[in-house]
Amino acid sequence: MPFLKRFGAAARFITVAALLAGSAAAHAIDSDAERVADAVERLRVAMLDSNGATLRTLIEDDLTYGHSSGQLQDRAAFLKTLDGTHAFQSIALSGQTVTVNGDSAWVRHTFDSVNNLPDGKTSTAHIGVLQVWKRHPDGWRLFARQAYLLPKE
Length: 153
Fold this sequence. Notes:
Helix content: 25-40%
Number of helices: 3
Strand order of the largest sheet: 2-1-6-5-4-3
């Protein structure tokens, strides 16, 4: 930084320290968003694998889970429909955005899935989803989820 040669060593040190601190703060924000995105991905995989143990670590005790049909589930109902049921053949998330605000985060994405039905047939879903996550000392947990119908293309 040639312009800093005009100033004393203390001024150069303060300037460099301020630049590094700003860079570290920006990186911390990115890291939080990345941690939330990682939790979303672990939730997706656990839902696909019907892995109840992992699902339990990723969701709040007082979870509210809203489906695009209007059905609401609490934690127990959510786990009952997914733990060991192999409800999905595939789940793909796209257009995801993550916003972190303190100890809360919200995630929006499009959720596309192939669902296994009880009669052996399949159905598909193409919905929008809003998730709300809460920070805990051991990681992020899903607090609320609401799905909504997307316009037909």
